[in-house]
Structure formats: structure tokens, C-alpha cells
Amino acid sequence: MIRRVGIVAKRGLTAATPDLVRLIEWLIGRNVRPVLETETARLLEGGSAVPTAAREELPGEVDLIVVLGGDGTLLGIADRIADTGSDIPILGVNFGRLGFLTEVTLPELLPALESVLAGTAVVHERAMIRVTAQRGDRALAEHVVLNDVVITRGTISRLIYLAVYVDDLFVTNVKADGLIIGTPTGSTAYNLAAGGPIVHPDVEALLITPIAPHSLGNRPIVVPGHATIAIRAAAEAGRGEIYVTFDGQTVVPFETGDELLVRPAERPLRLVGSPTRGYYDTLREKLRWGDR
């Protein structure tokens, strides 16, 4: 049962203020307690009497989180839900162009919430991945991500040399501007821009996509979703700056000899779907399929 609803808006999204007020009043009118993310509360003039919680703490305080913004805002919340070991759902509302993740439009917000409270909403389960960056026996960083983990060069434009392993079996050496390890959900993000395939979110798979590969032989590959992928920075990588980015939210340096381990996460993210639109509808609209 949904008793407490967390509300997160994109930082600085003042256009959301009237909708925040309307959403809070709507929830209170149905005896549901709203909890505002701390920075979101600042969007309300004069503050608010509604309880607040820091973004890191919010998943442990509520039964559902409503995100007002775009896919980037939702990704930041999804990663925090995973970090807390919670399985609460997210309802993503897009401000601006329709998002692949924030697929509920503003006019659909209250009907979608109504269906969640009634227990009739369509809730999609999206596979996530647990990614660990290691230097010897020491973990540099570990995050659970929804879309992808990306290895790229820093300020100097040089090729990156990486060795790719799947379930301890050597696959290939990659010479490219970078490498993306993505989920099916992330297949329509950076992976798509880099020439990778679109994979339906219900498919159990992981995607390995080189970014601007030096060799035409380095092509995207789809591997089983239960696989463990290891990426190692080869000696030829040199001393140039290389970075690992987790869902576009967190960045750590990656040096020769470091290893990136990608495994399936323990639980999926639960994402409330649009009451009027399915996955293929979103693809057609975002990718302009059928336009002449």
C-alpha cells in the first residue's frame, strides 16, 4: 500500500512549482503523505510545511517516488534506490520532450498516480547492473546503474586500449575512443548514439559497444544478461587520462592495470509505465519512425 510518496524535481526546475503544489494537495486529499526531496522543497516560494528528506535518504522514507524532470534526473534517483537495497517504484514525469524513462506526460500524472494507488498501474521491471572499478585488491568505486557504464578518454583525444572478457573468456581487444557496457534499458541512450543496437527492455542481455572504434572489426556485441563482463586497461593505454562514468552521474579515473567488473544487479528497478503509451509508441515518437 502506498502511504508515503517522495517527490523529486530536476534541480532548478522552477517551471515545476505550480505542479508541485497541485501534486502535494492531491496527495494530501487522498490521505497520502508527500515527502519532498530537500532541494525540490526550495522550488516552493516561502518553503513548505511538507516533510523533507535528502536525496540519498528519500528511498528509505517512502513507498513511491515521483520524478519531475527528464531521464537524467530519474537515473540519479534510480541509482540511489539501488544503493539502499530498496525496490520502491519510480513514476517519471517528463518536462519537455518525451523521455525513454520519464515516459509519463504531465497531463497523465494524476491519472497514473490514481492507478498506482488503486493497484492497477503497469509497473515494468528494468534490469540493472552492478559495476565495480578495481585497482589491484582495492575497489575504487562500486555502483548499481540502470543505463550504462562508459569508459572514455579525458581531455586529450587518443585511442583507448582495452581487453574485454566475458565469464573469464577472452573476447577481444578494443582500440577506440571509448567503450559502453549497457543494459537493454540503456540501449536507447549513449549506446544508440554510438551505433549500438536497440534492445527491448524485457530481453535478458548486456551490450558491449565501442565508441568510434579504430578497426571496423570492433563491432557491438550482445551477450547474455547473466554474464560477468571484465574490462581491463591494457599496457598500451599509456598515462593519458581515462575515466569511468556510471550512468552519467559519477566519474572515477581508470589507469593501466585497472579492471572494471560488470555483473547483473541483485534486483531490478520498478518503473511505472504510461497509462496510454507503450514501449513501441515511445520509440516511434522519439525516433520519428514513419516521418516523411
Please provide a written account of the structure:
The protein is an alpha+beta fold and 292 residues long. The protein folds into two domains: 4-126 and 268-287, Probable inorganic polyphosphate/atp-NAD kinase, domain 1 (Rossmann fold, 3-Layer(aba) Sandwich), CATH 3.40.50; 129-264, Probable inorganic polyphosphate/atp-NAD kinase, domain 2 (Tumour Suppressor Smad4), CATH 2.60.200. It contains six helices and 19 strands. The chain has helices at residues 17-28, 38-41, 71-83, 109-118, 190-193, 279-287; strands at 4-9, 33-37, 52-53, 64-69, 90-94, 123-126, 129-135, 138-145, 148-153, 160-166, 169-176, 178-182, 205-211, 221-224, 229-233, 242-246, 250-253, 259-264, 269-272. A six-stranded antiparallel beta sheet has the order 8-7-18-15-10-11. A six-stranded antiparallel beta sheet has the order 14-13-12-9-16-17, with no helix packed on it. The protein has a five-stranded parallel beta sheet with strand order 3-2-1-4-5, sandwiched between helices. Strand 2 (33-37), helix 2 (38-41) and strand 3 (52-53) form a beta-alpha-beta unit. It is globular. The model has no long low-confidence stretch (mean pLDDT 92).
